[in-house]
Fold each of these.
Amino acid sequence: MRSGLRTVLGLAGTLVVVAAGLTACNTTRPLYDYASEPDPRKQEFVLGPSDVLRVNVWRNPELSGDVPIRPDGTISLPLVGDIRASGRSAGDVRGEIWKKLQAFIKDLESNNVTVSVSSINSYRFVVNGNVEHTGVFTSNHYVTVAEAIALAGGPNRFASANEAVIIRDDPGKSKKRIPVDYLSILKGTHPEMDLPLLANDIVYVP
């Protein structure tokens, strides 16, 4: 009888420990479909105001050079006029330039016009909260959450780095909050949380 009682008590204790463990996991590992977030590194860079394009038209130096994207999102070129660039890729802009120049330059081949990104200035994100250096940061390439926090000097001694969040625009809705356990990213146990940041994202470390 006593043996049976000890067995029951032992099982009850095990269930309590398991339940406590599950509760702790739910607290520190919020469920989120990280794979549903876009990865901008898999596509051409999306242009924005203040970025600079390098346009080259073969044998036409007067039509070539560095062209800044104005605050209204457009660029201006001789013969071509104004073209919307913000929100598009350099490849899209190149295609439109080539089509418009065909009216002025005979036998202009598609590969005679190239457009590349000379300078990226529109990719900005914020790191805020308990980090060493809060502020607005820029980069000439996409950075991940871990890289952004490193640029901010890392969490300070008051930080709860396992409860960080990405605050991101949600088209047609209000802001959304994506939970991030920075410590798990560093340990390599949850690499899916190390999302690439989009322009205007806010990383907050409580």
Note: The radius of gyration is 26 Å.
Amino acid sequence: MCDHRRVVAVVDDDQDLLRGLQRLLNASGYDTEVFSSGEAFLDGVAASKATCLVLDIHLGGISGIELRRRLSKLGCKLAIIFMTAVDDEAIHLEAVESGCVAFLRKPFAARALVDAISIATSERADRTSGCVSKH
């Protein structure tokens, strides 16, 4: 039986990045659920065992920030790690205000993601303390 604290969902519309992150997280001891759109994640959220969501901000359909808002309205308590390739302070502020454990700018170091997930999945994670930025 899997430890649900070790299940990470990843949402990104870049299939190569999605596969790469899945390999990285599996090699780091996490089980993964991968989705190529926010809509696909919403369709599967009820069955998801994830406690942490690694979420691209710029997706083909609804944005990662909009997905975060919808999840909040549903009462979903997933820890969120946002990632984006766009260096825009307004987007960064919007992501932080929507609630996240970390905000990573692509390309980011593998260690930065694994560390952020470790914080997000720890039972002591204080998810109201704001968002850590990694450049």
Note: The longest strand covers residues 79-84.
